[in-house]
Amino acid sequence: MSNKKKPLLQVRKLKQHFDISGKRTLRAVDGVSFDIYPGETLGLVGESGCGKSTTIRTIARLYKPTSGSVIFEGKDLANLNKRELIASRREMQIVFQDPYESLSPRITVGNIIAEPLTIFRNRKLIDIDKAGIDRKVAEVMERVGLRYSLRKRYPHEFSGGQRQRIGIARALAMDPKLILLDEPVSALDVSIQAQVLNLLSDLQEERGLSYLFVAHDLAVVRYTCHRVAVMYLGQIMEMCEASRLYENPLHPYTESLLSAVPVPDPEIERSRSRIILEGDLPSPTVKIFGCPFYSRCPRKMDKCLDNKPKLIEMEAGHKVACFLHEK
Questions:
Q1: DSSP 3-state assignment of 215?
Q2: Which of 204, 184, 180, 203 lies closest to 193 in space, CA to CA?
Q3: 3-class SS letters over 71-121
Q4: 3-state secondary structure of 324
Q5: CA 27 to chain centre
Q6: Which residue from 49, 80, 155, 307 has the highest number of Cβ atoms inside 10 Å of its Cβ?
Q7: Rounded Cα gap, residues 85 and 49, in angstroms
Q8: What is the DSSP secondary structure assignment for residue 51, as one 8-state letter?
Q9: Whole-angstrom Cα distance, residue 283 to residue 189?
Q10: Could you tell me which residues are beta bridge partners of residue 16?
């Protein structure tokens, strides 16, 4: 993926902190920066609790960021008024992880998909009539593999894979440029995962879509994303092209994650050694002054305890935050 284009999304030093009982601060996202380019998929990976989903929700302004900026199509979303912010969501949609929880059980599938169009029409943000909304619902339902004749059914009448297709259709109805995918296949069976991933790939090719793809399954990310950002404790540890990350990981945390990904070749799998990290993920309520990975790193040094490594570019497009690669 060439980075000569102008970024569609620019995230700069994004922080999302939550006060807990007024005494402690949970640092869910703690200074994240990255770009997403037109037609590109950026994968955001890491263990559960590292801040991936919070990052997506903060970018979508479901949470107001503590600090930092989210610049979409050249506009900082923090500086937009309410109407402008709502208008920007036409170009940026989100598909949630759980297809059982993200669809209202009281609304028919046709109305679920039509809802964003209806809201924008009522606010006079788009020029579309009722017939136009119906045509759009029919178009996107058919495109994701659902018959338009099913529009009057309710979500509980569909399988998990079909429900996720409904969520994708709802996002597509607005003709967005960027879709935020919050672990869109993790709640689905493996066979259904492949179908949904193939659908997302086809839609990207047809429509020139950009994706921010949150996942914890690195096998999925390898074949889905152009670039990957590895996240730990609210911070990015390593970022580069997907192929390079799997061939030449630089950060010890990335190495440990990749060592857990099964290889389909039995001989290679038997010869591989798994890197087992000791200890649990530190609490995000404790402020860390050194490297956030220090307590679990098998290759830590004395300087890592009190000094925080910066995310620096080691090779073209390959960034890592680790003193092992200090120039």
A1: strand
A2: 184
A3: EECCEEHHHCCHHHHHHHCCCEEEECCCCCCCCCCCCCHHHHHHHHHHHHH
A4: helix
A5: 18
A6: 155
A7: 28
A8: S
A9: 31
A10: 29
**Which secondary-structure segment (H or E) carries 46?**
none
Structure tokens at 12: 């700069």
Contacts of 133 (CB under 8 A, 6+ apart): 114, 117, 118, 121
pLDDT tens string for the chain (327 positions)?
545 679 999 999 999 999 987 788 999 999 999 999 999 999 999 988 899 999 999 999 999 999 999 999 999 998 898 888 888 889 999 999 888 888 999 999 999 999 999 999 999 999 999 999 999 999 999 999 999 999 999 999 999 999 999 999 999 999 999 999 999 988 888 889 999 999 999 999 999 999 999 998 888 888 899 999 999 999 999 999 999 999 999 999 999 999 876 665 555 545 556 676 777 778 888 888 899 999 999 999 999 999 999 999 998 899 999 999 876
Amino acid making up residue 147: R
Q: Are 143 and 174 in contact (CB under 8 A)?
A: no
Q: How many CB atoms lie under 10 A from the CB of residue 58?
A: 24
DSSP SS3 for 205? helix
Q: Look up tokens 């990335």; give the residue.
A: 254
Tokens 């170009």 belong to which residue? 91
- 2 phi and psi, to 5 degrees? -75, 140
Phi/psi for 198 (5° steps) reads -65, -40
Tokens at 210, concatenated: 């950009």
Encoding tokens for residue 31?
Answer: 């200074």
Q: What's the pTM?
A: 0.92
